Amino acid sequence: MKKLISSLLGLILMALSLSANAQTDVPMADGLRSEGKIYVVVAIILIVLAGLITYLFLMDRKVKKLEDLLADKNHSTK
Fold this sequence. Notes:
The protein is mostly helical. Helices cover 88% and strands 0% of the residues. The chain contains three helices and no strands.
């Protein structure tokens, strides 16, 4: 779980550093922003990221349960 949190924090920091270096005069972004579509793009990106984070969290819990079951099974047979 700590690895997951540190990985997510690293990704967020990388995204922030990349956005700080981004150019501000991007015609496509200006067009999307002027038409209000940029909010749709941002919302979709956030939904996808939230889904991925949720999926990773649930998979981590399932793997942890399986590891505990395996450890208990190995411990009880010895």
